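Hi, here's the filled form for the chain we discussed.

Project: internal
Contact: R.S.
Residues: 284
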Amino acid sequence: MKKILFLFCTAFLLLAACGSDEKTATDSNAPVIEEAAPEITSEAAPEVVQTEVAEEAKPELVEESAAEAPAASDAQDLKLPEPKATAATQNWKYTEGKHYFRLTPTQPTVGGADKIEVAEIFWYGCGHCFDFETYINKWKETKPANVRFVRIPALWNKLVELHGRLYYTEEILEKSGAIANPAEFRTAVFQEYHQRGNRLTSEAAIQKFFERHNVDSDTFYKAWKSFEVDQKIRVARDLAARYGITGVPAVVVNGKYRTSAGDAGGYPALIELIDELIAKETAR
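And the returned structure, exactly as it came back:
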């Protein structure tokens, strides 16, 4: 009986030891199985939705070459302004150095720089100046608005200077109203010298001429001996020297160009040349 009990205990202990080793082996030698990641099903996965842009809302890239050309009628309306011709680009009829001469440097004028000045240098005793009167007076009536016309008497000797003083006395009396018709009076001076043979060679002869045209002696002498006339004489003498005047009639445009009927080729050509020089100055 004791023997049977001993065998039974021994067997029980062996079974308990194997169970403990087996468990240990199982715990230590068993492969480690990683927990699988949860499977994402189609229902769980977030859905990426692409928003479609409507055709009319999409920006269209157009190449320059593919741009639509303007309609023919519109293209005709788009006209670029003609480039303005300058003094250097215009075709002029008259030639510097032949028909007119450039004054270098540009010289002063009688008036200001607000207008283009055309100055006629003349002498009452000059028959050519008398002939030129018809042409220059007609031109003066239609001259451009941006042009000022003045006369400057020649003064190169005592008789010519006497007639220059006559002209400036006449100019002052015209402004004061003592001479009612300046054009008529001026023509009368030319006729007195060239047709009546009165050379007006003295102050007394000139005073009597004015008196015949309704200017009393007091009015005449007040102007004749005035400071204003003296000043005009000084200016005329200075300008004649600056302009290089050696004959009359001569024309100086804006203190810059000097010409004459002989240079231009006659009186009609001189008038045409004056207009061309004005255009040249206007185009600057």
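Let me know if anything looks off before we file it.
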